[in-house]
Design brief:
Layout lengths: L1 H29 L11 H6 L11 H9 L4 E6 L4 H16 L4 E5 L6 H4 L7 E6 L2 E7 L4 H11 L1
Parallel strand pairs: 1-2
Antiparallel strand pairs: 1-3, 3-4
Helix pairs in contact: 4-6
């Protein structure tokens, strides 16, 4: 009986240490992140160093651009969305190739984007012109579809 209690005690201590190390590691990764938040969802943490998910736009930055009647392309996505994970490797390099400054809006971190911009599913790319939405493409698309869409909205 004594051995079982000692064994269970060791297991509890190991699990506690593992939880602490994981939490500490994630909090270190979350420091100085482009989202301006103290804690991030795990999906976002996993993408922090991914070149496909740089060029983030924060909600207040997008609001400012729109109120200043600027033109902007915004890719609304969620790190946990499998369709976004399939779309980003196609869309992001294509936009760069075509000279588009594609801003990324992380809906996992900033859920207010769903109602604020009428986003019903991810991925969604929206073209704002003079601060107003003029067009959007929704869902995972082929490279040809994205190319035509960007060309018609350049």
């Amino acid at each position: 009986m004594k051995k079982i209690i000692i064994f269970l005690g060791i297991i509890i201590v190991l699990f506690g240490a593992l939880a602490f190390i994981t939490n500490y590691s994630n909090s270190e990764k979350s420091e100085d992140n482009p989202y301006g938040k103290e804690s991030l969802e795990q999906g976002t943490i996993d993408q922090l160093d991914d070149p496909l998910y740089q060029n983030q736009i924060l909600p207040e930055e997008l609001e400012e651009k729109l109120s200043n009647e600027e033109d902007v392309f915004v890719y609304f996505y969620s790190p946990d969305c499998i369709h976004c994970q399939n779309t980003s490797p196609v869309l992001v390099p294509l936009a760069e190739e075509m000279g588009i400054d594609l801003k990324k809006y992380n809906l996992l971190e900033f859920e207010q984007g769903w109602p604020d911009y009428g986003i019903e599913s991810t991925p969604t790319v929206v073209k704002f012109e003079d601060g107003k939405e003029v067009d959007r493409v929704v869902g995972s698309q082929s490279e040809e579809t994205f190319t035509r869409w960007i060309e018609s909205n350049k």
